[in-house]
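User: I'll paste a sequence; please echo it back and then give the predicted structure.

Assistant: Echoing your sequence first, then the prediction.
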Amino acid sequence: MERVAERENRDPDSVREQVADGQAVIPANRHHESLDPMIIGREFATKVNANIGNSETTSDLETELEKLHTAVHYGADTVMDLGTGSDLDEIREAHIAHSPVPIGTVPLYEAVKQAGSPEAITKDLLLEIIEKQAEQGVDYMTIHAGILAEHLPLTDGRKTGIVSRGGSIMASWMEAHGEQNPLYQDFPEICEIFAEHDVTFSLGDSLRPGCLADACDEAQYAELDTLGELTRVGWDHGVQVMVEGPGHVPMHKVAENVERQQEVCDGAPFYVLGPLVTDIAPGYDHITSAIGAAMAAQAGAAMLCYVTPKEHLGLPEEEDVRDGLAAYRIAAHAADVGTERPGARDWDDALSEARYAFDWREQFALALDPDRARSFHDQTLPGDNYKEARFCSMCGAEFCSMRIDQDARETGDMDSLEGEGEGTDLEASPAAEVNRPPVGTHAAGDLPPMADHEGVDALEEAGDD
């Protein structure tokens, strides 16, 4: 809690109070020794999760560790390993051994892998896998305990049915066995496992809408009511709880979703996927969802699960992870500026000052993705002399508005700009670490090196510091 307070620039007592009241969580399994703790809650800086993981068609340890390194490098606050391929235990243990950020999982995926089909899963297998992953050091787990047998008929009129992997698995199991969801029935026992190892619940939204037409329907909100019930059961067992939120929601319904979750779940942190505010842009869903993510965070969502350009199309690769995290770091930061988090705008002001001063090197250093900013500039003006130029290739020297403005102030009657030359002191900013450069501020010394990546040396030096 003291480390979290340091990273959030907050008093430790305020951290303790928020966690004790269930309004924030610190996912920190007692077996995760490489962890640099962080906090998720609406009173703290907005956090971003990155999903990684293998599939049946792509699976090797080296690739998964590289995905982990990419995610941490580009600013993921937590990482979920959603692997469904081979070597799941080896990969999970390697992630926990090396990751400075909390690792989340969905135990149900491994249960299907071991059982061979959703219908073949047994209650004992579910508990066995949950306990094993807790012992391995998983910090938080998505548990699909909120979908009940009586909810299934409510999905019959949907356009896209049940789009949650875990939700579809549990629905299939209940249909095959004619019984209630075992994760719901055995929830108190799961709580005991979580309490022993200090695992945080991420209560899965199994009936989240998979398209705008299905948003805010009876099925989604019926499950949400159950998630509120389970939140209180978790708290009664001394377990931290956050609640997962919807994937596709039109813009005018985003705030409603957040407000309803906060009311039903007594303020437990809301962890949202997107939401995507339009369904028309496969290949660009990191954009469609970042719009909804910014709105959700401004309304009170505590953590945003990134969406990559590959959403609905394929398994993300390194560049997709980079693009997804950029979109979501922008959404999270924009929301923190919009809600006036202390010092959040200082980063914006510092970069704007560097831009107006034509301090290209400082502008690159302050950028969310310095490598990309430098690369885009150098595509047309690559020489070192252009790092001193009072223009870029967009306007050229003659039509650069900032150069024209500066010259007019120097030679005419226009006043100099207020505060010119003083600059924003980011070292003295009250902003939380995630709202100050550089992105990727977790202590990353234990991460394996990321091959052939510009700036990896700088990352490792930052990690050592």
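Residues 450-465 have pLDDT under 50 and may be disordered. Residues 344-428 form one domain.
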